[in-house]
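User: What would this chain look like folded?
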Amino acid sequence: MVLTDCNISIGKSGEVEKSEIIVDQDEVEQLDVTLHLGAGMLMVESGTNKWVEGNILYSSNKNKPQISYQLDNGTGQVGIKDPKNVDLNIGDQVNE
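Assistant: Here's the prediction, encoded as structure tokens.
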């Protein structure tokens, strides 16, 4: 799993929307999940028969996360991305 750094958001957040995320299992034996989201609470648990199953809250339709799944040489690639996420990189940075 890969987690990214925070983002900057300016303006009113609006009403909170809720969206269900489901990525069904297929025949792959390995799964890579990339999350590119802004600050917030993240809970990850096992116990589903799906690759990914859960809910995500966001503040407007412009911020509705984009969910993707593709196969790459026998590995499933799941991406969950905030479309308005803006990275702010200042100076030398290390992510370990």
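The beta strands are 2-3, 17-23, 30-36, 52-58, 66-72, 75-81. If you want, I can go into more detail on any region.
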